[in-house]
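Blinded run. Sample ID left blank on purpose so nobody reads anything into the name before looking at the predicted structure. Input follows.
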Amino acid sequence: MLKKFNQVLHYNPRLSISNNQQRTQTMKDNQQYYGTISRLLHWSMAAAFAVMLFTAAMWNFNEDYYSLMGLHKSVGFLLMILIVVRVIWAALNVKNRPHGNLIVKLGHLGLYVLMIAVPMVGLIRQYGSARGSLKVFGVEVMGAAPEKIEWMTQIGNMAHGNLAWLLFALAAGHIVMAIVHQVKGEKIINRMAGSRK
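Blinded prediction complete.
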């Protein structure tokens, strides 16, 4: 109680503003580290990708695991929203983000393109299949075509899975290269997970 009273007596508005500015700065990206928002988006997406990979691998291994399709679609839809938010946030912070060489930039561009293309193709197939509405954890978010649209299902069947595996391969390469650079002492992982001091 006495400590709080002393804090009130010795209140320093400049210090308060400084603390608020510091919190704001940690939310944003800078040229050394990614900020809190980028980190939350990155690791949320990483967790969602793990679920997507697990469910897809399971039913490719054993068709009995097609019961995981509902979870796959629900997490995939949430992942698509996260991707859109992340692309917008990255565009807003493009001048402040840690710099990378051309190969790194092309790798990130490939990841972003595939992260948008894979769920979009999945949505096209879902709608064109006319097999029912898309439900995300039980909540209907998109209706279905009144009857099957052949070209939509063909695009989905041809592209969704292949693009998804390509995306997983790129993501695996991204992880491997991050570890390699970290071992070399470049502290790449610290940009997204380490202290920002």
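Unblinding after everyone has recorded impressions. The helical segments are 2-9, 13-27, 36-61, 69-92, 102-129, 150-183, 188-193.
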